[in-house]
Amino acid sequence: xxxxxxxxxxxxxxxxxxxxxxxxxxxxxxxxxxxxxxxxxxxxxxxxxxxxxxxxxxxxxxxxxxxxxxxxxxxxxxxxxxxxxxxxxxxxxxxxxxxxxxxxxxxxxxxxxxxxxxxxxxxxxxxxxxxxxxxxxxxxxxxxxxxxxxxxxxxxxxxxxxxxxxxxxxxxxxxxxxxxxxxxxxxxxxxxxxxxxxxxxxxxxxxxxxxxxxxxxxxxxxxx
Length: 224
Fold this sequence. Notes:
The chain is an alpha/beta fold and 224 residues long. It is 44% helix and 21% strand.
């Protein structure tokens, strides 16, 4: 899953990005409203963490511009604790949730997981397909109860496919949603990661749909 953090405080921006990357997300960062709006307009994100008090273009204006342009990604806004009016403005502009400053990083992570679950139509942090279970809260994958060790890229790929379970996902969409701007976006890399995932999982849950992409679905024997 690919996220965008827009926060003008360099230390807080770095801390947010580090925590999100440690939780298994690909993260792009912006430090002002104009840069953040541009990234949101030109890149594909599964969710955005947006500070409202930004230079060059305030967060409310950024959010309003995205929503008017039809951008529907979930947005978690960061507000000053005593500025209740900012919360109201944020929701009216199209925000999905908010966290007041100062905050605990665990709360930001939990609220983002909830936003991503809702976007995927999922009620819990656990995604199951046949014997494969992915716990987004713990960042853990098991097959028939046995833990599976994945690299960060492999985990991101499986998590995204599990969020889109039952839907064909193209290679281009995977690249857009999984990797930050600095990643080598060669589609052959996706094939390598899919091959590694299949080998590590040991079960046939990742199907190749010729000419279209990949789909996570329970093995045929378990669907009958």
